[in-house]
User: Fold these one by one.
Assistant:
Number 1:
Amino acid sequence: VRSYRAAQLATRNHQRRWLDIGAVPTPPEAMIIGAPKCGTTSLIRCLSDHPAVWAHPRKELHFFDNHWSWGSSWFASQFPVFRQGSGIVRMEATPNYLQLPECPERVKQTAPNCRLIILLRDPVQRALSWFHHMQRQEGLRGEAAEVIAQEMRELEAMGKDELGRMGWRAPNCLEGSLYQLSLPRWQKSVPARQLLVVCLEDLIAHPGRSMGRIHDFLGLPARK
């Protein structure tokens, strides 16, 4: 109850007139599900500026991985409900979801109509960016070339089935860049019309065109 009330209080002034205070909580219309170090923080911030977007004020709810045992009602209570016709899209961003093999079916079960944005970048650049992130945040030691080479040897020693079941394992530099393992799991569980893959390099080089694709995918009206 407190989470739901907090979500309602987090709405902006122009959205409050559309609040359906007594409605039963429902899952969001959209999520950004990955990948880490691919610009997800910048994207959710940019989208949250749109008047027809309600983005959860706390990035990375981690419901479908860390808090799955809390139940779908907890997840739904994180989002205010707006009356029909508001056009407001509710969303959150947890980039870890992309890589974890259990998440696609959990999302399908809990939010079957949710639209999912996957933001990717050059896999080597993502691996290096993640390496530096782990240095800063987790105290990862060693040189980038050394750490990544060791991870490569471990990956090469795995069989196809083991790779297919693989989720998150430190340091996760190369593993987090194996999009060819992660994407098919989502494509199997979620209809193609509900998935949008965007490359960070395209977003940087052609921001207007790329954001236009994202707005169209989310059904957002053009900003005046």
Number 2:
Amino acid sequence: MMKDRYQKQKLLQYFLSRNWYPQMEVEVFWPESPSTKPKMITDIDVLALAPSQSGNMRSIIGDCKTLKNQSPVNRAFWLKGLMTYLNSDYGIVLLSKAIEIEHKSLANSLNISLLSDEDFRHYSTATTKELVTEAALCDLERWDQYFTIPSTLPNLTPLFLYCKNGFWNEKDSSVRLRHAIAKVQNVRTELNPQNNKSVFLFLELCSMFSIALNDMCMGTFDKFMWAEKKEIFENDLRVQLWGGYENYQFWDQLRRRLIAKTPEEPVAALTLPEWSNFIQLVRACMDCPLELSIVPIILKELAFQHLQEQLSLDDSNQFIKKLVLENPQASKCAILIVDYIVRAARIPVEFANEASAYIMRLQRQ
């Protein structure tokens, strides 16, 4: 049973009402650990990614605690340290008990809102038009199903753990993009388009790929926007994906030595799989930079619709319908991302067909 369920659900509803991408129970690891099996350092109750005015996605950390024997401000001090480590802009600590004003004031100086349940009711009413309550992402029973995936689909556990923890412990968007594709490729023979949880994991991965794609596009938008020559654009993109010119040269030359049978044999340059399709995808994303940050939440909500016994992708989900209708370019990019990952990972096309058909049906309404 998930701890602090009621409080976590309130944070989920609030984050979704702001169109913030949510992820629950993220385990934090030290990426430079010398251990073969790194141990969890701490965990995050509810993590959110909020679109900024410039289109970048900034992390917000939500913490839920009863704090029977702990000072509220001590929890704020802990959260500030985690915010600094994750380069997070803002934090919310949601407590079940009343909080003294001195604790709240000090927390505010750290860019943290320290809120009781009653405080949060007023806070959410004042900062949102209406709380989202019907989205699949608000349904804690679906989150319960989410956490059972390793036991029900053990062969897909590596993909699940990457989506739940691994992705969030990587800070470089280029690494995230490459790893996301590799993680699907590694389990492609285990993915079954007839299994709802298998489809869920695929769409969940797509949503995270879109986060990394947004970060990369927005980080280099001004440069790529003016790269009209195809060769210049492609070269800059390759270098960006491998962390700079020297890194790219090293991995490209190493790959050529491993693949070529003779030193003179020509070998294609190092790229992502389905390179031409990836180029088209990036071009399309550059056409709608401020809508691109909505793509991840569209794909994640669609993923969570598959975490139920009887899948019914009807038109009753008002949350995703609103996102799709208000962000037509984001919906187009969501379809392109799903299609690209199916091609890049060489998995059955049925994984893309259903999701694309559903989004397009919503667009026609």
Number 3:
Amino acid sequence: FRRAASRGGHAPTAPDQRSDESGSPRGLNFFVPRRGFWVTPLLLDLNFLVFLAMCLSGVGIFFPDNVDLLHWGADFAPLTLTGDYWRVLTCNYVHVGLIHLAMNMYALLFIGLFLEPLAGSRRMAMAYVLSGLYASLASLSVNAEWIAAGASGAIFGLYGLFFAYLL
């Protein structure tokens, strides 16, 4: 390695230091927005950052309290229908523990890998937001006494859009 570097050549890098064409280390490129693939990484990052902020503020990592979830914007009919209308949007980014977050982000990553190049970034972003809003409204009408949080409704909407493209 030293001889190659001293002769003006480049010393090979260790496998764990290699990067892809975007310059990010391997394994992290799904979190880096780039041209033609920016919605999926942005949504992954946003969900992870909200969860990190929740944990840093003292919310339980595996079993958060209901009060903490409500503080961070979970959907709950008595609050949402009496003026906290923003909860139908914010509840799509609040997750009920690390396992819940991991499963939702796993599903989002794999549908995003296929759907974003197929549908385009703008359509995917609109589908995510609108599916999340409609899922929140459906949850309010069916489960008025439950606290709802998570990206599952938005992600199911993305899978529905993908299914429509398949047909």
Number 4:
Amino acid sequence: MSLQEVSKIDLVGIDNDSGVVKLTLADQFDWSDELLHLELLQKKINNYILFIESGEIHDKYPLSRNRNIEIDLVLRYAPPKAAKAFLDKAKHVMKSAGLTLNYNVFPMAE
């Protein structure tokens, strides 16, 4: 999947150890157009939240019922300062709503 496909859920899985449902959001874009990147990222995160809060996740993935759910953002490129601030704020807002957002950078060899 792609960050440009803001209405798509990239990957759904269940962590074998914890039983937590993981919704993975793959972000392969660099930060050369930071404003566009942040706009797409915000739209995609909002779509993931809607997928969870609407209950659609339980309709499409019945094994997600009665489990904790986390959104895992996997970034190919380290976010610049403003993007990191956005992600930290998003984590805080989501936590107050009972949701979890994790993000990590996993650079790939060119």
